[in-house]
Structure formats: structure tokens, C-alpha cells
Amino acid sequence: MTEDARPPVLEIENLCISYFTRAGEIPAVKDFNLTVHAGESVGLVGESGCGKSTVAMAIMRYLGSNGGIVGGSIKFKGRDITHLSDEELRRMRGSEVAMIYQEPMAALNPALTIGAQLMEVPLIHEAVSEQEAYDRSRQMLADVKLPDPDRVMAAYPHQISGGQQQRVVIAMALLSKPALLLLDEPTTALDVTVEAGIIELIAEIAGKFGTAQVFISHNLGLVRETCDRICVMYSGEAVETGTIGDVFTRMRHPYTRGLFGAIPLPSANKNDRPLVAIPGQLPLPHQRPEGCNFGPRCEYFRDGVCGPNAIEMRDVPGEKSPHQTRCARFEEIDWDAPLGAGQVNDPIEPGEPVLVVDGMRKYYELYDRSIKAMLSGEGVKYVKANETLSFDAREAEIVAIVGESGCGKSTFAKVLMGLETATEGTITFKGDEIESTEVQQRPREQVASLQMVFQNPNDTLNPSMTVGGQIGRVIRKFGVETDPDKVHERVMRLLDMVKLPRDFYFRRPRQLSGGQKQRVGVARAFAGNPAMVIADEPVSALDVSVQAAVTELLMEIQREHGTTLLFISHDLSVVRYLADRIVVMYLGQIMEQGTTEEVFAPPYHPYTEALLSAVPIADTSVDKRKIVLEGNLPSVLNPPKGCPFETRCPRKLGAICETERPPVLVDSDTHRIACHIPLESLQAVEPVFFSVAETGSPAGPGAGSATTGSAAGE
Amino acid sequence: MVASTEAAVPLPRRQSALARFLKSVALLRESPVGMVGAGIVIAWALAAILAPLISPFDPNSTILPFQKPGAIDPTTGKVFWLGTDKIGRDILSRIIYGGRRVLIYGPIATACAYAVGIVMGLAAGYFRGWWDSILSRVSDIVLSFPIFVLYVIVISTFGASGLNIVLAIIFASAPGIMRIVRGLTLDLRNRDYVAAAQTRGESPLYIMFVEILPNARGPLIVDACLRLGYVTITIGTLGFLGLGLPPPDPDWGGMVNENRALAPAFPHMIVYPCLAISSLVLGLNLLADGLREISIRD
């Protein structure tokens, strides 16, 4: 290893952590090494259950009553903290090592003002005066770019938005000037455009405060944007470490390579470069194989070389900075060979429109029963969940509805499914108007041909029914089959279709993994031979490698059956990969719609532009202009009078945006943008994405515009 | 997708309901507290079922009054293990037979109260709106009544009979059960599998009883055990107040009432029936604790 002049803040050597349960000792982390220097940030990446959070908890010495460090050392500023007393730990935690968690609301005390919670930190750890604590807290809020710090100091946590809460949590962590900051998925609970702001802030911290950071994430794109080095973990072990540049361009472990093959990079394409899922499943901690943990899932596994002895970390020769891998065969593997079978699918010709939505509106009435409201005659308020939606979806096509939380995409799904009825406008599904028919009144065939795949794998199946029972119920309900033997046979074929073993028939949902549950959910949706399936974020709660498998499965079945897929998502990288057409929504309105190519290239709606810029990309050959949106999503109860995006728009023209609804600009037959800015000006905008040369310096047409873009974002 | 036509993987046998029940019972072994509770409850149940075989005397025949525990019946030579009461009936036999009443009326009343409470709670929690407002207000009114005043009024008006006691208990317990079921339903109705059932056009009855109710069973079983304990106390108290089941059949609360004037001189006449009541209630509470412990762990 090359010597770094700066003293290491954190040195972890041969760390082993076990949990002690009823079933005996379960090794969670084995032989883990990590060094973090001041001002450096290291990304800890892996799927759930790989031990990354356990490492963070061990650094805080906060493993809970049944966890323990069974070997190795954790040195913080040269001092081994594995044997510190509770009193010494209390002094260290929060002042020298700080941690930021996923859920900001859970990290803040709802009963205290933010000022009181922030001031507590210097008051307790440094015993300063109240005035100094107040001044420092206020200054820190300004440093994390919260507008109006005085107001925030006096506010309670529920009075500010989720993104602002996370900024407060970061401010709180930085107040004691910690030498080390642990970030455990700090943006997972936030919307993409809000996430972009937090990520920008986190990336600045190290430079500004000299804080060493350990950034835990499952998202390779985020790690690329925030970290200097990366440590990929698999099944309790680090499998590859190195600088971002080395690992992202010259990965030397089959698991790392599998991860990159499973995420929708800009270069992936559903027709000729499909995603390749990693076969198999993560082994349970007490069922790990001998030798290489990744062995059973690795195509390069060779008996005798990859086992039975444990594999050590070894240096990759010829690299400028340290780059290590836990692969015994990394020198023999052809790392440039394409992943997977190189399967090529023909593009699908979409057929006739299956779904036509025309001027659909959904308003919810909200009754204000206060005397004041009755006197002023404003007793009823409307929540405009969907405002004049118009688009269509054709047979065998994948249409994506994209937007952040509160944009009305779920409301639209409810109206479509007949759980709510539209206030105005029409929805025509296969020639029938369905906007005001509730699902119970719809004919059976119609219900069967419009089905849904849900988001949360743990919620999608009834825990007290067997898998076979749940799918069978759908088949009987839709009258596909009635004879018990035929129903049974059909359930079996559906299990085959979603590539689950037939003996899952009698399993209950708790015996299934998240990905398997989603597969059952897919089987259930397709049980009645639907013409159209709505998938509401079907993979967002799954691990990266499982996401790829479920995404590919969904597309394969959709392709096979010629089903129309309405894919609701906030993740533009997945959408770019699979959608034929995209509808971008904001505050219940369509801001832009067009084919995937049209939406991802100029002219953009300014909101689409910001959304695209916010997507983290795990491809070092692609860079993007950074546009960070200011402000918060306006309340749906009181939306802006003119353009809904007017309050946050970096390209706002002026008064016209505030008072008048934007006209719909027609760029092509399929591409429409709702904006006051003339089409010619929008067409002149530089693309958000541009390629960079191998050296890392921006090149191409985007180089100049990078500054323009961020200037517009301020 | 190609359907594999050949008979592929042999299907595993479906576990019978009995096997699954036995498996959950086996789980209880993990909780020592629950095992003690189950032991006490099962012991009482066995005693009640086998009453004619194990009780030494006929519970209603007067033999020899005022006998202390351990005294011997001169005619038969058998021992009055727990003594006799003021009119000469064997207390042990009366306690054993008294268990029958509690263990018949208690579970019946609790089950009926559950049936009513579950229907009300599911309807209120699932439909919300007017159903919820009406059902919740009705249960608020019932719950705001002093319970025993209610019992006294109901039973003194309609007479002391098994049916009236059950009805009174249903009336008093159903609102509490309804609140629990309503709370669980409000949570469960937002699950995706309920939405999936709705989007395939299932009837509200199906959704409430097939999709929601089975998933609420964990907390409900625990609550049912506790509530059975309360009902046992209620039946005992009603017996003590003279509002219980009509004599001469033995009743634990009634036994305390009959002999309470003699308590200073002959404490055994009331101590043992009281112990019977409290041990059964304790057993049920421990069982509920054990079940809760298991359900949290699972």
C-alpha cells in the first residue's frame, strides 16, 4: 500500500463480528479491513445482509446485546476502541464519531424544537455557554444551506420537509466537529431531486470540514458521486477495494462485475444489452460455502482454486493506488468478455391503443368545518390529485409514469383500477369507458384484463395464505378455470412462468425472499391473462441483483403475452432502460411526455431536466450537468396558480409562469412539453448527459454547459 | 412461456390443520411462563371434564357440616380434603364441579362476545365513515357505563340464568373487542394484499373475513386468553353477588357468598373457592403472556 501523509482516522484490522442467537453463533462480518484518512470518504457498498451496517454499528460500538466483536481491532485515531468502557464510548459517540441514519424523522425528537436539539450537542460535549451554542447551531444550519436558519431553529421537526430534516440531522452530526462521519443510506427515504441536494452537501463536507466519511449505500451511482474509495462487501466480507476510478472501470471481482451488469447503466438497452442478474441467492450467514463465498453464484468457480480454503485479499498489480480483490482467479478471467449470454431481443411493434386517457381529473374534497371557513364560504377545499391528464398506451408497449412522491401517480393508478372514480374526463380501456365505474361494478373480464403488481414485497402477499392458494383464488375469481385440478395445473404453469419451483405451491409468504414474493405477485397479476398490467414501483424495494432478475422477468412475460405495461417509478435509470414512452408528472399534472429518447434528449421541460440531472449514474464514462432544485414541493392543497413547477423552476421566465397555465408545446407527434418557454429556447438547451474521456476531464459539448447548468440551478 | 407438460417436481403433502395446530402448540414449549399457564388451565379443564370420576363426594349432598380440611367422613371413611361447608357439602367436590360452570360459560360467553366484537370491529375499520362513527359511538356509550351496575340491572330484570349471564357478558365485552379489531383492521386494510383483493373485485365480506381477519389472529388470540380470565372473574363476582347461576349446583363465587359470614371461624370455606378462581385466572394470564412472547418472536 502506498503511504498516505495524513494520519488515518480509522483503521479496522481483521475485524470479525458475530451475533449470538438461540441458534448459536452467527458470523456477520469476517476478516474486514478498512483505513480511512482525514478528509477522505469511503463508500461501503453491498446488498442487504452483506454486513455493511454491522460494520458501521461496530465502529460506533453499538452492536446491541447479542452482537459482539470476536476478533481484530478498530482503531480510531490510533486508539483501539474495541475495549473502551461505556463512559469512554459515551464521550466518543456524537462528539468524535457521528452517525446519520436513513430516516431523518426518526432521528429527531418531535417534542423539542430543532434549536434545542442542535444546541444540546455543544452544550453537552463542550460545555459552552447557551449563547455560543445558539450561534454555532445557527451558523451550522446556514452551512448546510438551510434557508432562513432562524426560523428553522425555532421550528419543530414536523414543520419542515424531509429533505430539510435530513440537513438538520447532518448539521447536528457536524456540530461537534467529528473526525469521522458514518452515513447509513442517508438519502434512501428522500425524493430524487431532494436527494441530489443532500448528496451535493455530503460531497462538500469532507473538503470543508476535513471530516473522514464512511458512506454506506446500495447505490453505486451515489457512491461514485460522493466517495474517493469504495469497498464492495459480499456475505460478510470485503470482496474488492480500491479507488472509485479503478473499481468502476477495471473491476477485478466477479461479484462487483455482476453488480454492474445488474444495474441499468446508460449503456444498457432492453433489446440488445439486457440486464444480467446474478444467479442464485445470497447465502444465509450460517450456510456460507467453504472457500469463496461467491463461489456457488460465480461462473468462474473452479474447485480446488476457489476452495475449500478461505480466499485472502490480494493486490491487483499494476495499479497506481491500492486495489485489492478477494478473487483467486482474477488474473485468469477475461474481464472484457460480455456478461451473460448476449441475448438479443427484437424490438416490439406496439399495436392499437389499449388505454386512452383524455382530460382526466381527480379532485378530492376536503371539508373545513371551522366557523371561520363557514363564514367565508370556503368550507370545501379541493386536493387536485390529478389535473387534466391526457395520454395513451398501446398494445405491448411499456409506458412509464415518472414523478416524485405527491405527483399523483398513485392516485391515477387507483382511478384506473376502479378503487376511485374520476372527477372529470374519460379513461377508455379497450373501447370501454371505465373512469366512473368502480371495480365491483366492472365486468369480470375487464377486471381480469387490468391487473396490478405492487411495490412492497412484504405486503403484497397475504401472510396467512399459501402461495398456491393466493394464485388459485385469482384464477377461480376470474373464471379462467373452475375445475380444481385445472386450477392447480394452471397455478403450476404460472409458477413455471415466473421461474419459481413448483413446490412453492404450499409455501407461505414468510418462507420466501423479497424477490420470490415479487415473482408471486407477478404471477398473480398475470393469472387472468391481462391486457394491461400496472406495476407500481415493482422493484424499488428489492436488492440490486434481484431487481435485475424481476425487471427482466416482468419484461419477458410482457413481451411473451403482448401485455401493455404501465410502469410507475421515480427511478429514471430503470425507466430509461425499459420504457418505450415516458410521462413525467409533477403535482398532479403532466409536464412532459414522449418516447424515451425524446424525454432523455433536449428539448427538456425544466423539471425533466432537473430530474435527469438528479439521477446518480454509476458509469464513469458519463457525466452530467448538476442542477439542484431549491425549495420544497408545494402543498397539493394550495398549488401554484400558474405552472405547478414555477416555485422551484431554475428557468422561470417571470410573472407569466406564476399566473398562467403553461401551453402544451408540440415538439413532435409523440413529444409534448407543458412550458411557457418557447420551444426554440428549450431546443437550444445542452443535453444533461455527456461522455467524458478516460482521463476524467469533461469533454464534448457538455463541458461548457456544466457551469451554465449549475448557475441556472442556484 | 413454455409450459412443462411432464409431471415435474412431486408435490409435497399439504400439512393438515391438525399438524399445523400441534406445531404451534410445540412452539409454546419455548416459553416457560406459557407452559406453566397452559398447565394450570389444562389441569382445570381435565378436572372439570373428569369431575364425576375424581370428586370424592356428590357435590350437592349434605353429609356433615363444619368439617375442617382433612377430617374423615365416619360413614364412608373418605377424607374431606378441603373440609365441608355450613350445610355439610364436601368443598373439594363442589370446587371440582364448580369448575364445570366456569369452564362452560366462560368460553361460550367470550366466544360470543368475540363474534359480535369482530363483526363490529371489521365493519367499522374497513368501511370507516358512517359505519365507524355509529359503531364507535355505541361502544363508547356502553364502555362509559359502570359495568357492574349494568350486570345488576340486566340480571335482576331478566333473572339469573346461564343465557342471561352470557348475554350480559357479550354486551359488556363486545365494545372492547370491537376497538381492538377496529384498530387492527385500520392497519391491515392498507396492506397491498388487500388492495390486490380490491382490484380483482372481491366482495367486502371476503376481504374482511379472508384477507384481514386471519392476519389479525395473533393479537386476538392473546387478548382472548386475557379476556377469558376477566370473564372468569366476572362469573365469580356475579355468583358472589347472588346474581350467578341458580343454586344448588356449585358455583365458585356462590360458594364464597354462601359461607362468607362464617369466614372468621372457618376460613377454609371461602379460601379454597377463592384460590380456585384466582388460580384459573392466573393460568390464563400466564398463557396469554407466553403466547404474546411467541408471537413477538415469530
Automatic annotation (TrEMBL), chain A:
Any single GO BP term: peptide transport
InterPro entries: AAA+_ATPase, ABC_Ni/Peptide_Import, ABC_transporter-like_ATP-bd, ABC_transporter-like_CS, Oligopep_ABC_C, P-loop_NTPase
Endpoints of the signal sequence: none
Any GO molecular function: ATP binding
PROSITE patterns the UniProt entry points to: ABC_TRANSPORTER_1, ABC_TRANSPORTER_2
Subcellular location: Cell inner membrane
Pfam families given in the database record: ABC_tran, oligo_HPY
Presence of keyword rRNA-binding: no
SUPFAM superfamilies the record matches: P-loop containing nucleoside triphosphate hydrolases
Ranges of residues in domain ABC transporter: 10-260, 366-612
CDD domains (alphabetical): ABC_NikE_OppD_transporters
Entry membrane topology: Peripheral membrane protein
Record bears the keyword Transport: yes
Top-level taxon of origin: Bacteria
UniProt KW keywords: ATP-binding, Cell inner membrane, Cell membrane, Membrane, Nucleotide-binding, Translocase, Transport
SMART domains: AAA
GO CC terms: plasma membrane
Family the entry assigns: Belongs to the ABC transporter superfamily.
Protein name: ABC transporter ATP-binding protein
Automatic annotation (TrEMBL), chain B:
Subcellular location: Cell membrane
Chief location category: membrane
Membrane-spanning segments: 33-54, 102-127, 147-172, 224-245, 265-288
Superkingdom of source: Bacteria
GO cellular component, one term: plasma membrane
Entry membrane topology: Multi-pass membrane protein
GO BP of this protein: peptide transport; protein transport; transmembrane transport
Domain ABC transmembrane type-1: 99-288
InterPro entries: BP-dependent_transpt_permease (IPR050366), MetI-like (IPR000515), MetI-like_sf (IPR035906), OppC_N (IPR025966)
Pfam families registered for this protein in UniProt: BPD_transp_1 (PF00528), OppC_N (PF12911)
Keywords recorded for this protein, A-Z: Cell membrane, Membrane, Peptide transport, Protein transport, Transmembrane, Transmembrane helix, Transport
Entry keyword annotation includes Membrane: yes
Family note: Belongs to the binding-protein-dependent transport system permease family.
Protein name: Glutathione ABC transporter permease GsiD
